[in-house]
Design goal:
Layout lengths: L1 H31 L11 H14 L1 H34 L1 H15 L7 H8 L3 H25 L3 H9 L4 H36 L7 H10 L3 H29 L1 H7 L1
Helix pairs in contact: 2-10, 3-4, 3-6, 3-8, 3-9, 5-6, 6-8, 8-10, 9-10
C-alpha cells in the first residue's frame, strides 16, 4: 500500500513539474540559439546568475523584506476589520446587514487600479497609500467569505447550543467560528495572494525600494536580466504565500479533511 502511494506521489510530481521543466528547457534553448534574442528575453541561466548576485549583495533581502512588510501590514489591517464585520453581516445583526450590506457589495466591485490616483491624492506617495491599497484589495475576499461562512452555519446546531444555555460569545467561539473556518481560510488565502500581487503596481509609483520598484527601475534603465529576475521573484513569493496558507489551513481546519474522506 505504501509503495503504491509513493508511486502515485512520484507520478503526480512528474506531471506537475514536467511541463514547467520542459518550458524552461525550451526557453533556454531558444535564447542560446538566438531564436529568442536576449536583447528582449533573458535566458533562465542569466536570470539565475542575476538572482544569485541579488542574494549576495543584499538587493534581494532589502527589497523583498520591504514588499512583504507592506503586504503584511495591509493584510493584517484588512483581516482585523473584515472578520468581525463579516460575522456581523452573516446574520447576527439583521438591521446592520440590511443597511450596510448593499453598500459594501457596491464598494467591493470597484476596480482597484482605477482607485490608484484616489489613494495617491488622499495619502500621498508614501507608505500610507501603499498600505491603504493593500487594505482595499484584501478586505473584500475576507469579508465576503466570512459572511458566507456564517450564513452556512447549520441553524440546528445554533438552536441546540442555545437550548443548552450557551451565550452569544460561547456560540460564536464554539459553533460559528469552527463551522465557518473553511470559508474564512479561503478568503484569507485569496486576500493574501491578491495583497501581494497588488502591491507590485503600487510600488511602481513613488517608491525607492520593493519588488515593484525593482521592475520599474530595470525597465527604465533597460536592464532585461534584472527585469526578468524581479518578475521571477514575484512569482516565487506568490507561490510560497499560497503554499503557506494551504499548510496553515490543513493544520487548523482538520475537520475539513475528515469530512471529505
Amino acid at each position: 500500500m505504501r509503495l503504491a502511494q509513493v508511486k502515485e506521489s512520484a507520478s503526480s510530481l512528474l506531471y506537475r513539474f514536467g511541463a514547467v521543466a520542459g518550458f524552461v528547457l525550451l526557453w533556454q534553448i531558444s535564447c542560446s540559439t538566438g531564436l529568442a534574442p536576449e536583447t528582449f528575453v533573458a535566458s533562465p541561466g542569466t536570470i539565475l546568475v542575476t538572482l544569485w548576485q541579488y542574494a549576495l549583495d543584499g538587493t534581494l533581502y532589502r527589497n523583498a523584506s520591504v514588499s512583504l512588510l507592506r503586504a503584511l501590514y495591509g493584510f493584517l489591517l484588512a483581516t482585523a476589520v473584515a472578520v468581525p464585520l463579516g460575522f456581523m453581516l452573516g446574520g447576527w445583526f439583521k438591521g446592520f446587514e440590511r443597511a450596510v450590506g448593499p453598500l459594501l457589495i457596491f464598494f467591493g466591485q470597484f476596480n482597484p487600479f482605477a482607485l490608484f490616483t484616489v489613494f495617491l491624492l488622499l495619502f500621498g506617495i508614501g507608505e500610507v497609500s501603499k498600505v491603504a491599497m493593500i487594505f482595499w484589495v484584501a478586505i473584500w475576499p475576507v469579508l465576503f467569505n466570512a459572511t458566507l461562512g456564517v450564513k452556512t452555519v447549520d441553524p440546528l446546531h445554533v438552536k441546540l447550543a442555545r437550548s443548552m444555555g450557551m451565550g452569544r460569545i460561547g456560540l460564536l467561539w464554539k459553533i460559528v467560528i469552527p463551522s465557518s473556518a473553511s470559508f474564512l481560510f479561503s478568503g484569507l488565502r485569496s486576500a493574501a495572494g491578491t495583497a501581494f500581487f497588488m502591491l507590485i503596481p503600487a510600488e511602481m509609483m513613488g517608491a525607492s525600494r520593493g519588488l515593484g520598484w525593482l521592475i520599474i527601475n530595470a525597465q527604465i534603465n533597460y536592464q532585461i536580466p534584472k527585469l526578468y529576475t524581479a518578475v521571477l521573484l514575484i512569482v516565487i513569493f506568490g507561490i510560497l504565500i499560497d503554499i503557506l496558507f494551504k499548510v496553515i489551513e490543513r493544520k487548523v481546519v482538520l475537520w475539513k479533511e475528515a469530512r471529505a474522506i
